[in-house]
Amino acid sequence: MENAYADIIRAVGEDLGRPGLLDTPKRAAKAFKYLCKGYEEDLDTLVNGAVFPSDNDQMVLVKDIELYSLCEHHLLPFIGKVHVAYIPSGQVLGLSKVARIADMYARRLQIQENLTKQIADAIQQVTNARGVAVTIEAKHMCMMMRGVEKQNSVMKTSIMLGMFRENPQTRNEYLALINS
């Protein structure tokens, strides 16, 4: 990967012998590997049994989870937040695991539409919830730094499963909570 970064830097006309660039291929490769560390993680290992019995049958919501990912089309970042809610059916997921699940999928080359669904499906799989809702709001550098160069655009995606899809009252409660 270091050699590939060196080739890219040379291809844009830079001198790899310049003091500021001496270790850049090595640092860039290390950074890219970190930004894509989600490929090295799997759901079962990440959750690590942190699903606990509970008689709570009301909505659990984790809001404003920071999110960083890379657009699979341009390898540019998209940055935002994700809101995750579920209706338990006898068990709840450890709080930090919700954010870790979001990060696992975000730390892969992605499009926001798929990322939203992957998070929702994973929460559903792990909790066997009666419903799951996931909303992502993100700014895409591929829209801001190149192409149309629109600085204030925000993309919002959502997935509603189970009760969130079937019951307008549950969906409306979720939407009111994430917008408050």
From TrEMBL:
Annotated GO biological process: one-carbon metabolic process; tetrahydrobiopterin biosynthetic process; tetrahydrofolate biosynthetic process
GO CC annotation: cytoplasm
EC id: 3.5.4.16
Enzyme class: hydrolase
MF terms in GO: GTP binding; GTP cyclohydrolase I activity; zinc ion binding
InterPro entries for the chain: GTP-CH-I_C/QueF (IPR043133), GTP-CH-I_N (IPR043134), GTP_CycHdrlase_I (IPR001474), GTP_CycHdrlase_I_CS (IPR018234), GTP_CycHdrlase_I_dom (IPR020602)
Residues covered by the GTP cyclohydrolase I domain: 1-178
Coiled-coil boundaries: none
Lineage top rank: taxon: Bacteria
Pfam families given in the database record: GTP_cyclohydroI (PF01227)
Catalyzed reactions per annotation: GTP + H2O = 7,8-dihydroneopterin 3'-triphosphate + formate + H(+)
Pathways involved: Cofactor biosynthesis; 7,8-dihydroneopterin triphosphate biosynthesis; 7,8-dihydroneopterin triphosphate from GTP: step 1/1
Residues engaged in binding Zn(2+): 71, 74, 142
Keywords: GTP-binding, Hydrolase, Metal-binding, Nucleotide-binding, One-carbon metabolism, Zinc
Cross-referenced HAMAP family: FolE
NCBIfam families assigned: folE (TIGR00063), PRK09347.1-2 (NF006825), PRK09347.1-3 (NF006826)
Subunit and partners: Homopolymer.
Family: Belongs to the GTP cyclohydrolase I family.
UniProt name for this protein: GTP cyclohydrolase 1
Taxonomic placement: Bacteria, Pseudomonadati, Pseudomonadota, Gammaproteobacteria, Moraxellales
Gene name for this UniProt entry: folE
